[in-house]
């Protein structure tokens, strides 16, 4: 019998102080990937894919990343990187949350939702639809599919936008620049649509 | 556009789902993870798991169940029941829950809301309010609707919002289990008086009741248990109905 040589993809998940990442790890495991949760620069650089997840507060998260020089590590990654939620916001130039300078991978600023009517509640929490999809990240995802959001701050529609959603105003549901991909929504909490988006990322 | 949410609620005792009718007699309805998965596949937007076990052992079983749910499902879920202090919140969130729902503990010590919001963010803090309408208005109750308090629904809702709650889960004890519709008038007043989402609970018996909770009651989400557990209303047909009624829903 010939020995089977199986390609094992390594997926690193950035370990930092932003919230509960248990569901990101779980969804990867369900998809047959054993993720490595790490803040080790060498492992992050060597991984095939890097996921930068999280929920939390921007200025505290940035302080944590800077203290451990993870800001430089993330900026210097060359493989496909997927930021999720606060991960996406931290990849921008500046965040209104805690008035903090962020990683600057995307040359755009993160703003706070300002309700125009009483019904417009902040945080934007729940399922909202995706439009203007343009990226291999959304292969086989249709316009109008719903994904799950929980956030009070947003990335405006800009040159990097690869998916839009609308709450109070149109905003970037996802952005991409070179090898850096990021979603404002939580694909790990977005049922089968979210799982497909994660699969698309792993297939890049 | 942000969709209105349909949320099945699973009462869990000793690792098994049960459903209370008017908060008392209980009937068995299966394994919570399997039931949760079935709901997720049918299109439930979120799930709520309420621990109705009193014992320490039962609490441990519940935490293990939370971990299983988080491992196996990929939609958001809230857990509640028996949360008394910040350590309970920490335990459930680290087991993988997205949100926690607090009720009696918040009435007894409202500062718990501030603490949860400060430590974990408002978005994880759901405050459940059980209230009954009497001649003096809507009164809040403790301990699963057994003990009246001197707090009034709208004042309390305003206070929990100020303290940093992320959502209010309002159950009308007068409507719960009766299946004649949600407390739409009180829901609409709540929606107008606070700036956080309202989950309507108690009273679902027909598809029209969900529509009315969203249109008349102005609710952001509607929760129900027995109509889903016993298959009286299927989630796909409910969501199709709501869509046909021009309510923005995730199909």
Structure write-up:
The complex is a heterodimer of chains A (204) and B (251). Chain A has helices at residues 22-30, 41-46, 58-67, 70-75, 86-90, 191-203; strands at residues 11-14, 36-38, 49-52, 81-84, 92-95, 100-101, 106-112, 124-129, 146-151, 153-154, 161-167, 169-177, 180-183. Chain A is 24% helix and 30% strand. A seven-stranded mixed sheet of chain A has the order 2-1-3-4-13-12-11. Chain A has a four-stranded mixed sheet with strand order 6-5-7-10. In chain A, strands 8-9 form a two-stranded antiparallel ribbon. With 251 residues, chain B is of the alpha/beta class. Chain B has a single domain (5-244), classed as Alpha-Beta Barrel (TIM Barrel), CATH 3.20.20.70. Chain B has helices at residues 32-42, 56-72, 86-94, 104-108, 111-120, 153-163, 184-193, 207-215, 226-229, 235-244, and strands spanning 5-13, 16-20, 26-28, 47-51, 77-80, 99-102, 125-134, 137-142, 147-152, 167-172, 198-201, 221-224. In chain B, strands 1-4-5-6-7-10-11-12 form an eight-stranded parallel beta barrel, surrounded by seven helices. The two termini of chain B are 13 Å apart. Chain A binds chain B through residues 19-20, 22-23, 26-27, 29-30, 55-57, 115, 118-119, 121-129, 146, 148, 150, 166-167, 186, 188-192, 194-195, and chain B through 1-3, 5, 40, 45, 70-72, 74-76, 93-96, 98, 120-123, 166-167, 191-192, 195-197, 218, 220-221, 250.
């Amino acid at each position: 019998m010939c020995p089977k040589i199986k390609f094992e993809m390594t997926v690193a998940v950035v370990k930092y102080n932003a919230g509960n990442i248990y569901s990101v790890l779980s969804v990867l495991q369900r998809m047959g990937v054993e993720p490595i949760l790490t803040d080790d620069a060498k492992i992050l650089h060597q991984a095939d894919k890097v996921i930068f997840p999280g929920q939390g507060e921007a200025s505290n998260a940035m302080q944590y990343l800077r203290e451990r020089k993870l800001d430089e590590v993330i900026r210097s990654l060359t493989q496909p990187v997927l930021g999720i939620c606060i991960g996406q916001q931290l990849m921008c130039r500046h965040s209104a949350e805690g008035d903090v300078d962020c990683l600057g991978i995307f040359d755009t600023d993160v703003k706070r939702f300002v309700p125009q009517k009483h019904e417009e509640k902040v945080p934007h929490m729940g399922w909202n639809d995706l439009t203007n999809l343009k990226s291999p990240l959304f292969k086989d995802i249709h316009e109008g599919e719903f994904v799950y959001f929980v956030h009070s701050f947003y990335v405006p529609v800009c040159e990097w936008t690869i998916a839009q959603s609308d709450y109070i105003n149109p905003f970037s549901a996802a952005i991409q620049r070179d090898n850096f991909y990021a979603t404002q929504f939580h694909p790990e909490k977005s049922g089968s649509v979210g799982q497909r988006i994660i699969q698309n990322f792993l297939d890049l | 556009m942000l969709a209105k949410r349909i949320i099945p609620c699973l009462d869990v005792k000793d690792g098994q789902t049960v459903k209370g009718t008017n908060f008392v007699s209980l009937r068995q309805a299966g394994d919570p993870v399997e039931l949760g998965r079935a709901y997720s596949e049918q299109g439930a937007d979120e799930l709520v798991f309420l621990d109705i076990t009193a014992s320490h052992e039962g609490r441990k079983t519940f935490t293990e169940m939370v971990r299983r749910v988080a491992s196996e499902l990929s939609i958001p879920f809230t857990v509640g029941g028996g949360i008394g202090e910040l350590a309970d919140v920490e335990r459930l969130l680290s087991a993988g829950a997205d949100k926690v729902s607090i009720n009696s503990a918040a009435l007894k010590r409202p500062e718990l809301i501030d603490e949860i919001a400060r430590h974990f963010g408002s978005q994880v803090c759901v405050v459940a309010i059980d209230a009954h309408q009497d001649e003096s208005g809507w009164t809040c109750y403790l301990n699963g609707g057994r003990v009246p308090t001197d707090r009034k629904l709208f004042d309390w809702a305003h206070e929990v919002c100020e303290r940093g709650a992320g959502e209010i889960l309002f159950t009308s004890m007068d409507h719960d289990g009766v299946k004649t519709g949600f407390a739409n008038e009180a829901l609409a007043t709540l929606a107008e008086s606070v700036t956080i989402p309202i989950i309507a609970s108690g009273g679902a018996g027909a598809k029209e009741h969900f529509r009315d909770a969203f249109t008349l009651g102005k609710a952001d989400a509607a929760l129900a248990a027995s109509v889903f557990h016993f298959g009286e209303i299927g989630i796909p047909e409910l969501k199709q109905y709501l869509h046909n009624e021009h309510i923005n829903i995730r199909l």
